[in-house]
Amino acid sequence: MTDGSSAEDPSRYQLFETAQREAGWTVEQLWIEYLTLGGTQVYFDLDAYLAGLMPLSAAQQDVLACALNERLADLEHATRLPYLSELPDWVSEAGLDLLWKQPLEPGSD
Amino acid sequence: MTDAAPTPTPMSSPDQSQLAVLLAQMGAVVLSTETVGTTLKLVTALAAEAIPGAAGAGVTLVDDRGKRSMAASNDLVERADAVQYRLQAGPCLTAWRDRVKVRVDDVTTDTRWGSWSGQAVDVGVRSMLSSPLVAAGSCVGAIKVYSAEPAAFDDRAEHLLELFAQQAAILLVNTQTLADARRTNLDLTRALESRDVIGQAKGILLTQGAADDAAAFAILTAASQRAHKKLHAVAQDLVDATTSRNASRPPR
Questions:
Q1: CATH numeric code, B13-180
Q2: Are B147 and B77 in contact (CB under 8 A)?
Q3: What is the pLDDT of residues A36-56, one digit of tens each?
Q4: Which of B66, B114, B150, B231 could form a disulfide with B224 if both were Cys (CB 3.0 to 4.6 A apart)?
């Protein structure tokens, strides 16, 4: 997941803008899908980010990327937006399965 | 151009009061829960009835993205409309694009739309009327009536279709607005349900050691990619696994 891009990269919004067009969604449709996945920014801020007028935090960019990636997968487009956040060290790829099969007791180790 | 042809006087031509009844029927639709599709059908059926001389009526709606939806009262209309869409030219498309009413008294002598005339004759059309559907300043489509006879429509029919089109445009725009609002409502309800499940899954991951909301989301996206499932689905799986674990153990 390391692709060298950063949240502050001023041209990164263009990736999203392109993906939005490929997704065939209006900004409003994209905003609703982003809310669905837990996004917290209001419509205006999302619209402004997609136009390159305002920054968006790395965490919110990842939520937006996820909304678009799921749509592009549905449409069988090959394009995917890279995520900025990395998987925490304590979770290995294989550990994910375990996490889902046997969630730990809260607080236990 | 067809001055010599006698103006037909249809036997069942509705008078103004009958038109008022028809318009009232359209007005009632807004209060019920009709969809755009059923409203289109109703408007089309009413137009075929209301306009003296009409053998069939059709409505074409064009939205902001150029997408068309249409309704036709019978086969004649469907065939005649198909010719226009194939050629991308014809009286109804002119009515819609130029926002003008269009009357064709005899397609065999009318040369305004090139090859449209010849093909219209082939599908059984001799005369037609079309009026744009304009509401709230925008043109949402066109309504038209066809006849297999030449000069089937007189000035009165033309005027009636115009009056009818004004009411139909308002009705169709209102129905469209209502349908949009209903769709947004459904979208938001679904969004909230899904968001709730994802929120619960992130909460579970926080108790498992995820540093913050963003880290929990990163775990969910990784799990989603690994399982080739939607993020919402893996979130639901995690919530389900956790609740079933809790159910099989005594509360602490």
A1: 3.30.450.40
A2: no
A3: 999 999 999 999 999 999 999
A4: B231
